[in-house]
Structures are given as C-alpha cells and as structure tokens.
Amino acid sequence: MTIAAPLPSSPEADHPALTDLMATGYHLYPRALDPVAAEALLTAVRNERSFDGDLFLSEAEFDADPLYRGVNPRPGRNLLEKYDHMLGFVEQDPQIVSALAALLGQGYSLLDKKLVCGVPASTIPDWLKARILGNPVNNLGPYVKPQYRDITYFFGIDFHQDLIDFPGRASDMITLYVYLHPVTASDAPLYLLEGSHKLGATVFPHDLTRNADASWRYAAPGRPAMGCQQVMLTGGAGFAGMWHGCTLHGTQPDVADHERISLRYLLTRGGGAPNGLDRVNESIDWPVILPATREDLNAAGAARIKHNAVNQA
Ligand SMILES: O=C(O)CCC(=O)C(=O)O
Q1: What DSSP state is assigned to residue 123?
Q2: Cα of 66 to ligand 1 centre, how many Å?
Q3: Which uninterrupted H or E stretch holds 196?
Q4: Is the pLDDT at 8 greater than 50, yes or no?
Q5: Atom of ligand 1 nearest to the CA of 188
Q6: Domains of the chain listed by start with CATH number
Q7: DSSP string, 243-283
Q8: Residue 289 Cα to ligand 1 middle (Å)
C-alpha cells in the first residue's frame, strides 16, 4: 500500500530528519501534529473500546490453548483500518511527508500501521501480572480475547530494535510513533538510546548496563562497546517521533491509572533511486541485517528468560 500524499520534488540531503537520524538514530518533529485531530481519533477509539479487565482471557481460558504467535493486528483485524479517514493529520502533515520522502524516497510505502496501547497495571488481572513480571517483552496479545487483538497491548517492552521482527532483512524501515494524548513520565513514555543505531543490528536481549548518570553502556560481540544517553519522550497530543530500525527503544509498564494510546507506523522505501536511509546505513560501521534477531523465546514463542533493562531507566 502506498500512502497517497503530495511529495516534494526531490529529497533534501540536508533534511533535519536525515541529519538527526544519522547522528542520533531518531528525529523528533519540532511541531506537534494537529492535536484536535489526534484528540478526535482518540475519542473515536475510546468510544469503541473499553480498556478494562474485560480485555483479558481468564487464566483457565488462556491455559486451555496458549497461543503466543499471530496475536497482533493484521490486515482485516486492525481497528485502525476503521479510522483510516481520520489519519490525514499524520499522513498528509507536510513535515511528516517531507521527512519520509527525504529518508525513504518518493512513493515510500507502508509496512504496518496500528494502534498501540500501554495497559495500566490496575487493569491487568493478578494471575497475569504474576506470570509476566520481569519478562523482557510484555506484548499482552496472547492473553487478550481474540476479538480485541486488533490493537497491540503492551505492559512494557525492554530496549529493542524494530528490526527484531525482520530476521534476514536489512534495516530499510523507519518507525513513526505519534502520541494521541499528553504522555508524561507515568504514562509509559518511549525511552530511546541515543546513537545506539551505530552498533548496527544486534541480537535481543541486548547487552546494556546502566551508568549512574542515566547513560548506558551498550555492547555486542565483536564490536567496541559504546555509551548511549537515554532520552525519555514525553509530549502532548500530536507529539511525533521517528527512528531507525537499529535504534534501541522501549517502554516501562504503565503506572498511570489510565491507558496510553499511540499510533505506530512502519514505513519503507519506495524502490528506485538511493535515498536518505541508504546514506544513514552507509554511515553505520556494522551490518544492519541479522539472520536471527532474538534469543528470548522458546519454540512456542513464549518468554524463556526473565530479563529487563528498560525498567531501570
Ligand atoms: O508502545 C509501547 O509501549 C512500545 C512500542 C514499541 O516499542 C514498539 O512497538 O516497537
């Protein structure tokens, strides 16, 4: 699917999205996207869905048929499809359009777009909390009733690269993330590790040690360890940021008494000429592709380790 939007005639080599991505692995938009449109979408979603304990299977229902894969939104089971007509404030915003064109070239295309919910602790059943505590990836899809798997629900996710979902594929994608309401430190904000993309593609869970000053030592086999500053993304409705497929980022469990709802786009190049992302990748000294991206799951797809770094952020 190609996003239909007016594109600038030629990507600018010195576009801030490109220079930021190269230097830090992420770009934050200086101007919020239309907050009224963000609010309207949020209201529509909240009218549609109650983000309460009814989202979840009972322990007995889950144990009768544990299913860890295929529990995310997909075409035909994606609540955001219903609100496609309300997404112009993102997809036609001139600063988004020009950044994506500079990074991905004309006719960039969509790999995925969905609603992401940070579920507050108060909503999660006790039996489930006890099971998932300390897991690196708390995507709650396996525990959510099938009819509600049209949104991705998180109770935090450790620092990871979005390349994690693409073994064998070079990092040719950009994640665009938009807050639909104000997000403070207690609303499960995104944490990014600045410059972490420079170590290229590395296997999850990552070798991270927090320093006293909120920076991190990031290591990977055969590569010199680097220091990365952590950046917490708080902002108002319409706050938007994008990052490279190798940029480490994560969220802590939502400690507010309400859910955090965001938009997450994954976009890739539109074929043809080399583009800004190619230049970013060329500036990275290490491969941006891995045959296997993670070591945290067993054969069924369930967590086989207890490990979490982002909760120390
Ligand atoms: O929204 C969240 O809590 C985590 C989102 C994230 O890191 C991702 O989807 O890659």
Answers
A1: G
A2: 23
A3: none
A4: no
A5: 3
A6: 16-312 (2.60.120.620)
A7: EETT--EEEPPB-SSS-EEEEEEEEE--SSS--HHHHHHHT
A8: 21
Distance 139 CA to ligand 1 centre (A): 9
* pLDDT tens digit sequence for 278-311: 999 999 999 999 999 999 999 999 999 888 999 9
Q: What is the DSSP code (8-state) at residue 158? A: E
Indicate the pTM of the whole model. Answer: 0.94
Q: Burial, 83: exposed, middle or buried (Cβ in 10 Å; 0-12, 13-18, 19+)?
A: middle
Residues within a 6 A CB radius of ligand 1: 116, 118, 154, 157, 162, 188, 249-251, 262, 264
Three-state DSSP class for residue 138: strand
Distance 9 CA to ligand 1 centre (A): 33
Which residues lie closer than 8 Å to 81 by C-beta, 6 or more apart? Answer: 75
When pLDDT is averaged across residues 270-283 and rounded to a whole number, the result is 89
pLDDT tens-place string over residues 244-261:
999 999 999 888 889 999
Closest C-alpha to ligand 1, atom 7: 250
How many angstroms does the Cα of residue 250 sit away from the middle of ligand 1?
A: 6
